[in-house]
Design brief:
The protein has 341 residues and is α+β, with helices and mostly antiparallel strands. It is built from ten helices and ten strands. The strands form three sheets. A five-stranded mixed beta sheet has the order 4-7-8-9-10. Strand 7, helix 10 and strand 8 form a beta-alpha-beta unit. The termini are far apart.
């Protein structure tokens, strides 16, 4: 039937054009925008709560983890219609393959996989602080192996996958689209369950091998078991996340030295004053002498940090002092301040 004069002809079918798979770099840009949003929130939160965060030290990472989990996990579920602020700005959306939105629990699991690759070191430190019977190397080695597998799977699989799905997408049954739902025929032609299972199994193998390798290296280099006096001194200083590493060979001025490195988080004194770095280094070195008095050590490195880390934002003062093993005299000092997310 012809259109009447003065009327506007409209198509009989006004179905929206199908969307397309979101590419790797636009997803990176989206994540960068979300990172800035979270960092801004963390930095603003630290203005009135800095004293609280400094008392928490590196245990505060769970605050940022909870905030980022709520932000990304909730907004990328059906509650937020699959869009964080970064994804909304760029027209991206997280959905299932059929175009429906993720449930909240599935979205939370998806984000927890991604966040582990980012937060694993801080979470490992926090766990050791909360559960002091655990040794740091027992936690760091396997968690680093798992983080390596998750990082490779979540970020570096995406550019090569036909549907641009990372390990977190495969495990959560999700896909990131741009513009609208995908054509079911397009998805079916590129979806391969056997290939995706091989990717997941490959990730598990990488995690296992990296964890075993990390534990082997840790057992060779760490001297944490035989240092009761050093850890007692660290406890007296109220330090967190203390580790001792015997690097055995390091070069200073072209000369080979055997070095014992002591590292950890040193809280600020009440009132927010700067820690007494020099006193802490000397007390730790004196305690190390009691633990390793017969060891062939030339130098002691004491690497201390102070400030706060809430995961989405952190502020550290760092101090590294090298001391002569025999005299206990400080031979060099390096310090820095960093504020980053």
């Amino acid at each position: 039937m012809e259109a009447q004069p003065g009327s506007v002809a409209t198509p009989l079918s006004a179905a929206p054009a199908p969307g397309r798979v979101a590419g790797f770099w636009v997803r990176v840009l989206s994540d960068f925008i979300d990172g800035l949003v979270l960092w801004s929130f963390g930095a603003l939160l630290a203005i009135p709560l800095r004293g609280v965060f400094e008392r928490l030290g590196e245990r505060g990472v769970f605050i940022g983890l909870a905030v980022s989990l709520a932000y990304s996990g909730v907004l990328q579920s059906r509650i937020g219609r699959g869009q964080t602020l970064g994804k909304r700005l760029l027209g991206l959306r997280v959905t299932k393959l059929d175009g429906s939105f993720l449930s909240l629990d599935r979205s939370l699991v998806r984000y927890m996989l991604v966040s582990f690759a980012i937060y694993q070191t801080a979470v490992a430190y926090a766990l050791v602080t909360v559960l002091p019977f655990l040794r740091l190397d027992w936690i760091v080695a396997p968690s680093s192996g798992l983080a390596l597998a998750v990082g490779l799977g979540c970020f570096f699989v995406i550019p090569f996958h036909p549907l641009k799905r990372g390990l977190h997408d495969l495990l959560a049954g999700s896909i990131v689209t741009r513009g609208g739902p995908l054509d079911p025929a397009f998805v079916a032609s590129r979806d391969d369950a056997r290939r995706d299972r091989r990717i997941v199994i490959g990730g598990l193998v990488v995690a296992l091998l990296a964890s075993v390798g990390g534990l082997a290296v840790s057992a060779h280099f760490r001297d944490t078991v035989r240092a009761p006096a050093t850890f007692a001194a660290a406890s007296d200083l109220e330090m967190h996340n203390v580790s001792l590493t015997n690097t055995r060979f390091a070069s200073f001025g072209g000369k080979q030295n055997r070095v014992l490195m002591i590292a950890g988080f040193l809280p600020r004194p009440s009132g927010g004053a700067a820690p007494d770095w020099n006193e802490a280094a000397k007390r730790l070195t004196a305690a190390a002498h009691a633990d390793f008095k017969d060891a062939p050590i030339d130098r002691v490195g004491v690497a201390l940090r102070s400030g706060y880390n809430i995961g989405i934002a952190k502020s550290y003062d760092n101090d590294v002092r090298w001391l002569d093993w025999r005299t206990g005299q400080v031979t060099s000092i390096m310090g820095s301040k960093e504020l980053q997310f």
